[in-house]
């Protein structure tokens, strides 16, 4: 196999490099460092208010409990006298508990104090919610701005990639990186940063409050942290490979779907539905297995951490109850501590449950970063050579090129195409015809030798300057969703209505457009199915005519038009060729009999060149090709 497809290789499977990828992803937030700092401040204030709440709520519990116990004690006694009386009655446990309380014997619940505490807690929680909303609002702006920049970089990167990359990459996989993977990164960054930040601050704040209330109970609560981290790391290590496989399989499945959809007519014509379904089922099954394993394994994290948290809750409840009974802690402090213990394990559980989302997002980020790290086309020279001379003189000087180092294609090619000449390039498949014009456009860089346009080496020109001199019509038509007028005007930004109509007349587009109900305002659908293949080809030719290039390249451009239209296009092309160089790649040799120079290529070399009559008289390679098209089926030698 020759050409770009020969270099295509299936994408390899690479283990996820989690740590460096996370640092690189977070590094993209650097331009928003001040906003990130504000997010941290707002989140800290919100967490502080939230963390103080349970401690103050514990005071409300103490007020209620003190009132209930105080009402049961004889009025007129001091607390010490009431404790002594209880001990005298043999109620030592109750006496110990009362000694640690702030009770007034005979008094009930202090509702005024209770109301003040509840209003204070309500105010704290309202402020905590307000600062949390401000933090989320600011973080959303940061994340969306970062992802917008990432999309812009990917779009710019695609335009800087050489054609070789697109020849060796599946279109569906590339689209999956640009759409699915970036969306997954956005979702991951949006959710994990906010939750991780809040979780870390909450853990630190709650830990401080627990140490303040009871160092002993705090130690019991802290013991669950290393156990939770160990469980999370153990499970995450076994699931990360499945997340990488999941997104790779997603790209492969998208490529399969895109390829099948684009060629659905051929699939039906050749009756390959069963094979296509089998290929889809295979890739779909691979995606199912990798997705199932990724979610199933990572889904074990949250239940495991919850189990450890429940064990911690039981231990705190038992020991706290014993300390209340002994009078060394108040009931409100135990209640607050139990609430803190729940809140302490909750962020750890949230972080654990986010591991599957984090790993999925980092796997997508790696795929996007891999695209951004691809080798780019060589930069334009600085300073570049510019010239207003646009005669269309093209010279190949000892040009050699190969797609793969071990597979020569073009060696020491020399060719001169003079202004106004029509140069036809013919030869068998794989001879290097399309490659030749791709080298003119610098879609590929020559391995050695030079290509000159109007005496200037193309490598000393900017690609925009070079390609502005060249118009190209491909065998495979490309039209975008829009009107016929818009598709023609694509060849020259800012073209006037008269210029568009003139190009349409020259390419005979005007003949069929005027038969349409909406004329030039006819909207071409996404697949271009409301115009025929020949009409689409004529529109692309009109687009090239509108650009008024000094060099015109037609790559089997008349293959989709009928014989009569082909004759009209040939007349239009002849009128356009005045003072312009035309390269025509043709398989039907009847279309290039009037070419000024016919170049016959075989295995990357020019074996013959001359006019149609001269080459027929020689009886060489061109004569054999020509007669094989009109003298019946070609005889293939074994």
Automatic annotation (TrEMBL):
The keyword Methyltransferase does not apply. The keyword Metal-binding does not apply. GO terms for molecular function: ATP binding. It comes from the Bacteria. It is a multi-pass membrane protein. The chain crosses the membrane at residues 34-52, 117-139, 196-213, 219-236. Pfam families: ABC_membrane, ABC_tran. Signal peptide: none annotated. Residues 38-360 form the ABC transmembrane type-1 domain. Keywords: ATP-binding, Membrane, Nucleotide-binding, Transmembrane, Transmembrane helix. It is found in: Cell membrane. PANTHER family: ATP-BINDING CASSETTE SUB-FAMILY B MEMBER 10, MITOCHONDRIAL, ATP-DEPENDENT PERMEASE MDL1, MITOCHONDRIAL. This is ABC transporter ATP-binding protein.
